[in-house]
Amino acid sequence: MALLPVSEVFDRLLGDVEKLPAEDVPLAEADNRVLATALNGRRTQPPFDASAMDGYAVRAQDTDDPNTPLEIMGESAAGHRFNGRIETGQAVRILTGAPVPEGADTVLIQENTRRLGDREIVATEPAALGRNIRKAGLDFAEGDALLPAGRLLDAGALSLAAAANHPSLSVVRRPRVAIIATGDELVLPGSVPGPDQIIASNSYGVAAIARKAGATILDFGVVADDREKIAAVVAEARQTADVIVTLGGASVGDHDLVRPVLEAQGMRLDFWKIAMRPGKPLMFGRLGETRVLGLPGNPVASLVCSHLFLAPLVAKLGGRKHVADIRNAILTAPLRENDQRQDYIRASSEQRPDQLTVTPFGLQDSSMLNTLARADCLIIRPPFAPAADGGELVQIMMIR
Ligand SMILES: Nc1nc2c(c(=O)[nH]1)N[C@H]1C(S)=C(S)[C@@H](COP(=O)(O)OP(=O)(O)OC[C@H]3O[C@@H](n4cnc5c(N)ncnc54)[C@H](O)[C@@H]3O)O[C@H]1N2
Ligand code: MOO
């Protein structure tokens, strides 16, 4: 089977993805969720003409002559309005956020007044008509379009939704990603491994990438290389998962059972084996409504494929925008010519005063997590790229 080019992998994986259905969540739990439907104001804010300052509600023309005393008729505080109307020659003590009394057209700030005893003030400076008054609806009015569908609910959006009196919000359901690690050699961190065993590490990194893209993770732990056991876990996972991610068992060895087991369960294979390094044995298919992404077991292949493919898949299902952070950088060391597979080379970037540079790591074996953890980017080497010298420009994808 020919290896599928990376650009086609994106098309086949993402081409027909629709965002998941909506669900209602309490406002307090809506942080970092994606709004499913546009949000309108359910009230007008401020609901009345309100004072923007501590001072006195007056008629502007009464302040034209600074020596005219104004009689204080009462107080309007936030939450407790002054019930009454002021006439010429009168003022009401007013505090920030309080309703402006009828008859007043201006708020004179406290600093521009002088008190004469308990009952009177004079303006020390004339006030312009309408000063320090927030008109009703200054922020928004009932029925105004406030937030569009697809908006990520961040701090500003959440407080606006609250101010508009929405106690709950309709958000896109989080994609549920089931992760199934396969392999007789794997034991969980903290176990005592047998002589031929290693610690299962991939799930943790893959889960972190998926979660960052908006997923809820269903971790199915480690399953032995056994057809029945893998089939049983897949059958359980497909009940709830939008995406099943399998780890390992994707290649051509006698114990690489994932694809045959999934096909026996009815998976329609879309593609298997892609023109990429690391990540060649990547597999993608559909099991009913559930998408299945079979990641190669080599830890670096699992994580690089998750950055490249799982993150945008999860983001799109969850209604989020996902744009890979791709930049141009100057190579500090030479690179060999490339073969037919698009290469993603672990590297370290440095922002210098005048340019971004990138240094590839010498060893690129796809089992080496130590280099992956140190890498902040991957150099993208297109198929058949000629050898590159230090000083040449290359594309890099940031991974942290
Ligand atoms: N004859 C060929 N052999 C291999 C090919 C090939 O094309 N022809 N491809 C190689 C490539 S590329 C990769 S990548 C691996 C992928 O193989 P599998 O997906 O079948 O993965 P496994 O054989 O199960 O495991 C490979 C390696 O990774 C370790 N592993 C697996 N799962 C985990 C995990 N959850 N946490 C940590 N480490 C894990 C496993 O122990 C193996 O060492 O195949 C090449 N072979
Ligand atoms: O995916 Mo494999 O890691 O190309 O070595």
Automatic annotation (TrEMBL):
<keyword id="KW-0460">Magnesium</keyword>
<dbReference type="InterPro" id="IPR036135">
    <property type="entry name" value="MoeA_linker/N_sf"/>
</dbReference>
<keyword id="KW-0479">Metal-binding</keyword>
<comment type="function">
    <text>Catalyzes the insertion of molybdate into adenylated molybdopterin with the concomitant release of AMP.</text>
</comment>
<feature type="domain" description="MoaB/Mog">
    <location>
        <begin position="178"/>
        <end position="316"/>
    </location>
</feature>
<protein>
    <recommendedName>
        <fullName>Molybdopterin molybdenumtransferase</fullName>
        <ecNumber>2.10.1.1</ecNumber>
    </recommendedName>
</protein>
<dbReference type="Pfam" id="PF03453">
    <property type="entry name" value="MoeA_N"/>
</dbReference>
<dbReference type="InterPro" id="IPR001453">
    <property type="entry name" value="MoaB/Mog_dom"/>
</dbReference>
<keyword id="KW-0500">Molybdenum</keyword>
<keyword id="KW-0501">Molybdenum cofactor biosynthesis</keyword>
<comment type="pathway">
    <text>Cofactor biosynthesis; molybdopterin biosynthesis.</text>
</comment>
<dbReference type="InterPro" id="IPR038987">
    <property type="entry name" value="MoeA-like"/>
</dbReference>
<dbReference type="Pfam" id="PF00994">
    <property type="entry name" value="MoCF_biosynth"/>
</dbReference>
<comment type="similarity">
    <text>Belongs to the MoeA family.</text>
</comment>
<keyword id="KW-0808">Transferase</keyword>
<dbReference type="InterPro" id="IPR036425">
    <property type="entry name" value="MoaB/Mog-like_dom_sf"/>
</dbReference>
<dbReference type="InterPro" id="IPR008284">
    <property type="entry name" value="MoCF_biosynth_CS"/>
</dbReference>
<dbReference type="InterPro" id="IPR005111">
    <property type="entry name" value="MoeA_C_domain_IV"/>
</dbReference>
<dbReference type="InterPro" id="IPR005110">
    <property type="entry name" value="MoeA_linker/N"/>
</dbReference>
<dbReference type="Pfam" id="PF03454">
    <property type="entry name" value="MoeA_C"/>
</dbReference>
<dbReference type="InterPro" id="IPR036688">
    <property type="entry name" value="MoeA_C_domain_IV_sf"/>
</dbReference>
